[in-house]
Specification:
alpha+beta, 13-stranded mixed β-sheet, 5-stranded antiparallel β-sheet, about 30% strand, globular, Phosphatidylinositol-3-phosphatase SAC1, phosphatidylinositol-3-phosphate phosphatase activity, SAC_dom, phosphatidylinositol-4-phosphate phosphatase activity, EC 3.1.3.64
Length: about 475
Amino acid sequence: MAFSKGYRIYHKLDPPPYSVLVETRSREECLMLESGAVAVLSAAEKEAIKNTYTKMLDAYGILGVLRLNLGDAMLHSLVVVTGCSSVGKVQDSEVFRVTATDFVSLRNDPSDEDRISDVRKVLNSGNFYFAWSSSGVSMDLSLNAHRRIKEDTTDNRFFWNQSLHLHLKHYGVNCDEWLLRLMCGGVEIRTIYAGHRQAKACVISRLSSERAGTRFNVRGTNDDGQVANFVETEQVIFLDDKVSSFIQIRGSIPLFWEQPGIQVGSHRVKLSRGFEANAPAFERHFSALRKLYGKQVIINLLGMKEGEHMLSKAFQSHLKASEHAAAVKMINFDYHQMVKGGKVEKLHSVLKPLLSKFLEDCSYFSYSGEAGVQRSQSGTIRVNCLDCLDRTNSVQAYFALEMLPKQLDDLGLDKPQLVARFQEVFRSMWSVNGDSVSKIYAGTGPWTARPRYERPRRGRRSATMSFVS
């Protein structure tokens, strides 16, 4: 069954109260939203009242109910997906990018549109994705391959419309049956033929919703140790019943710092708390990383410019003084100094030898339906530059492409011509992935020096964006 606009939204104006019905082709029941409440109606109940309702619109799916406190009243809007484009198919699921949404005021007040316009802009930005399967059980995009097989419990860090599910949950509605789950970030999927078999090559970046916002507005950490622009990026290959996955993470330096100012280029880095006041959040950040991802090594790409150097030194001092000092290694690599003109030779000759043993020990995730879990990734590299954008993209792409031949060998895809084809495809996907992550945090793709395998891009560097949380 092909994916289509399988939801119909109806409303009833008279007699009061205003009421909205939601029906879907896949279920006999329907949802009724009325007077701030939600109820699931049986097929018989639906048929008894449906002729008093008129159709408003068709939708691909429902994201939930947006609730805004207006002081003396509560605004409720039903959020529906009215436009989406397919990114590709993986296993039994198809992944879609949201391109258009509609907001149905549950009090039938046209003025509500002004209040939700910012949220609409964010949801229509092209940064949100959902998965759909005709079987009714869709891939959970919040989970990397290892977690999906190991526990299959949604990772709330990457479940962006979680708050939109709460209103229906409050009334006992099974949200898995009625609502979509959104992930924010980037998803690239390509099909590569290996003889008569089809392999799916994917790069998936999941942006955390825990400290979301654009650069210059949101930097560093919060008191819980959650950092700005935290992204889990997964390089994953699906082949028949096999899957191979390699994960890297990025995130702002876990200290309280900011860059006040209006004009790009005039922002000076400023630590907003003293050493002792930074320590608890720093400890929480690395405790959480080690619990979630295992062993950690930091690749710090900050340079010798005044603000960057000060921030880099503070990062090193906090690690040295922390309870994680013995377990977490930091590698300082002045990217701008070492990788001049976008050439990657120093990544290979200087940086790679420092990480080789760690990557060999931590490995990657490998699974087959027949043998189960064959390898597990037991640690990640945490990469940062100032914004965790262009320099970070370059280094993560480099190490992912270094790991790729090992993943392919594990899948039995080790013929030189096939490896070369995969490398070409993944280079392209990593470049697009870098642009996707940059646009969300900075408003544009990175435009400073890129490694030679990335295509150039121009664009404005300033942008404002709010996020759904």
